[in-house]
Amino acid sequence: MYKSFIRPILFNFDPEKVHHFTFRFLKILFRIPFVKGISQSFYEIKDKRLERNIFGLTFKNPVGLAAGFDKDAKLYRELSAMGFGFIEIGTLTPKGQPGNDKKRLFRLIEDSAIINRMGFNNKGVENAVKRLKKNKNVLVGGNIGKNKLTPNEKAEEDYLICFRSLYDYVDYFVVNVSSPNTPNLRALQDKEPLTKLLNTLQAENHSHEKPKPILLKIAPDLTDEQLLDIIDIVKETKISGVIATNTTISRKGLHSANQTESGGLSGKPLTKRSTEVIKFLSEKSQNAFPIIGVGGIHTAEDALEKLRAGASLIQLYTGFIYEGPSLVKKINKQILEQY
């Protein structure tokens, strides 16, 4: 129904307006008492064999929603009822910011892809905390970044503000230094500043009685040498794992007319590269840390390829938009068929 009826209608309109309309519609719809139960009956598979115990957390299934979809934690409970095992909110910054100028979100329908240059648009970390206080049983990750006007020399302060504000309300953290849409942000992926940033966060983390898992989200555009640096950094800072990968700045092999738009590319063109990065990290580190695989998952087989490459969990974003919520169920069913 989604691909044959709903998606063709939605794809006739501006993607960012559709996103906000969908959020408002789902928020109203899920206020009807029986809707949550119906959604769960359609999309959720409950089976102990799907559970994953990773970095001290129990995920009810390995399929999560990637950051960027529910930036301000407005819809994480409703989205959880669509079968996801976990929801990652953000990227959040200390202060709310509008992001980059519109138009900044583009569908590449011929390529089953999206280009975005949103620029960490969000209402600020404290705004999200108000909603997260209402969470009862959704496993939530907090993806954190820095404000656009914060220079890289002071980036640690922004990440610490977000970390401290979210600490009591998320189950794990993701350090986002790999978005291509905030000026100079990717420079923080260099070995020295990244090690310093993660050590600072770990020091804060271990000041608590029960430290939270911290993961690093990396770009797919890193060279093998840079990926080896990432492995060294994970070992040195003792963070819990890596999310591979964020969006790419590559435009190789695209067919859509609007492929020249600036920003990060996600979707099917990223499938192969993100899997290559997962495999490289897994093999070269000798499975030393968990990896969450994300990038170009549009079918159950795409998901299984990432799991076989070394991912412990996977996340959807663009595939969820193109294929609809039934994709979550299809993946979990296919995983169960492997037993």
Strand order of the largest sheet: 3-4-7-8-9-10-12-13
Count the DSSP helices. Answer: 12
> For the CA atoms, what is the radius of gyration?
19 Å
Q: Helix amount, in percent?
A: 25-40%
Number of domains: 1
**Shape designation:** globular
What would you say the CATH architecture is? Alpha-Beta Barrel
The CATH class turns out to be Alpha Beta
Q: What is the β-strand count?
A: 13
How many angstroms does the end-to-end distance come to? 29 Å
How much of the polypeptide forms β-strand, as a percent range?
15-25%
Organism: Riemerella columbipharyngis
Membrane topology: Peripheral membrane protein
Active site: 179
Function: Catalyzes the conversion of dihydroorotate to orotate with quinone as electron acceptor.
Quick recap of the structure?
The protein is an alpha/beta fold and 339 residues long.
Structure commentary:
- Its EC number is 1.3.5.2.
- Substrate binds at residues 71, 116-120, 176, 181, 246-247.
- Its cofactor is FMN.
- The active site is at 179 (nucleophile).
- By secondary structure, the protein is of the alpha/beta class.
- The chain is 38% helix and 16% strand.
- It has helices spanning 2-10, 15-29, 35-43, 76-80, 125-132, 155-166, 191-205, 224-237, 271-284, 300-309, 318-323, 326-337; strands spanning 52-54, 57-59, 63-65, 86-92, 105-108, 113-116, 140-144, 172-176, 214-218, 241-244, 264-267, 291-294, 313-316.
- An 8-stranded parallel barrel has the order 3-4-7-8-9-10-12-13, surrounded by 5 helices. Strands 5-6-11 form a 3-stranded antiparallel sheet.
- Helix 4 (76-80) links the parallel strand 3 (63-65) and strand 4 (86-92).
- The two termini are 29 Å apart.
